[in-house]
Design a protein that fits this description.
alpha/beta; Rossmann fold; 2 domains; elongated
């Protein structure tokens, strides 16, 4: 039997985000399998949870982009690697990756990276494909790494992010759903379509609102739930509210702000939308919605192509086409049985392909390619 590993992950900070959640999930999974999990970051509000899950955390300013600061971190990280007898170093962001790369070389341990996004194709970003193994979170991310960052195909492995389906097994009845909707200011009856995640221009919220306005012609009682916080000080949130008023749907759109109760919110929704205007490397919102048994509609590019099965778990539509997005939503909402079948198929797909357990097992298998027993 292979021995337990000591695994070091590096990322800038441990606050809210997809990379951060992935590190938390991996940490919990490594510990559950008997491995030793160490994380280096500049800290953040998720450190307490990481430690509670059995991980070890070291606070170092590995997030700073100043060359002198980064170089000063290399010997400190190398000392942690040696003192903790780390078997593999896994970097998940560019500045920590540069630090981790040179520290791993000093300590003579394998170095792994994960390509979480479509990084700018310049020298600074190419550290993300210099791992002895390079994990990509989707086929789209892997293709980008090869085409734009000159990744070696022999080193690339695609490992999708995962979630824990059990988190979404809440099973609310109609009365509980009506109560939850009332608490948010949503009508107790009628369809609810949702968009969940950071509110940035990349996410396509104006497209979503245009689609909701068009959708009301076919589904008059539909409401929309927008979950997420807009960027501070830029007025983008106000722009979206003004757009909703201009479209005549201001009274049917609830801007819920940033929330930590996504499994509960998904109980209130009938369909979840991801309409990013540019490709994204993955789509955690999609797999969480599917885990909750909700059909999804997503833009047909990037990581969504790995997640959504057209006509089976939901629909894929071209970017920046609110008319087609509205049509896809109409198709689902006008036939509740179809929506339920799609939701059930989505849950089954998550259980098969997008669980934390599978993500962790596949990642450990990559480490085993590099670490001698």
């Amino acid at each position: 039997m292979s021995r337990p590993l000591t695994i070091l992950q590096l990322l800038p900070e441990l606050n809210v985000g997809g990379v951060e959640q992935g590190v938390l999930d991996a940490n919990r999974g490594y510990v559950a399998l008997g491995h030793r999990s160490i994380v280096i970051s500049n800290g953040g509000r998720l450190v307490e949870r990481l430690v509670a899950d059995g991980g070890i955390h070291h606070v170092l300013p590995v997030h700073r982009k100043r060359l002198g600061t980064a170089l000063a971190m290399v010997p400190k990280v190398a000392r942690i690697i040696r003192a903790s007898r780390v078997d593999v170093v896994h970097a998940r962001s560019r500045v920590p990756a540069w630090i981790g790369y040179y520290a791993a070389r000093r300590a003579r341990v394998p170095f792994v990276t994960t390509v979480h996004g479509f990084y700018s194709p310049h020298f600074f970003s190419r550290i993300m494909v210099r791992g002895e193994r390079v994990i990509a979170v989707s086929r789209a991310a892997a293709e980008y790494a090869k085409a734009s960052l000159n990744a070696d195909p022999a080193r690339l492995r695609v490992i999708h992010r995962g979630t824990d389906p059990a988190r979404f097994d809440l099973g609310w009845d109609a009365a509980r759903i009506a109560e939850g909707r009332k608490a948010l200011g949503l009508p107790p009856e009628g369809a609810v379509v949702a968009i969940i995640g950071r509110i940035t221009r990349l996410k396509g919220h104006p497209v979503f609102l245009d689609a909701v306005a068009a959708l009301r012609e076919k589904v008059p009682d539909v409401s929309a739930l927008v979950v997420g916080a807009p960027p501070p000080g830029k007025g983008y949130g106000e722009e979206l509210r003004a757009q909703a008023e201009r479209l005549g749907i201001g009274d049917r759109v609830v801007f819920a702000g940033a929330r930590g109760d996504v499994p509960e919110l998904l109980q209130l929704c009938d369909v979840v939308v991801s309409c990013s205007t540019q490709p994204e490397a993955f789509g955690r919102t999609l797999i969480e919605a599917m885990a909750a048994g909700r059909p999804v509609v997503a833009t047909a590019h990037g990581g969504a192509l790995d997640i959504v099965e057209e006509g089976i778990t939901g629909h894929l539509v071209p970017p920046e086409r609110p008319d087609l997005l509205a049509g896809a939503l109409t198709d689902i909402l006008s036939a509740p049985d179809r929506g339920r079948r799609m939701g059930a198929a989505g849950r089954e797909r998550v259980e098969k392909h997008f669980t934390v357990d599978r993500m962790v097992a596949d990642t450990i298998a990559v480490y085993r390619e590099l670490v001698t027993a």
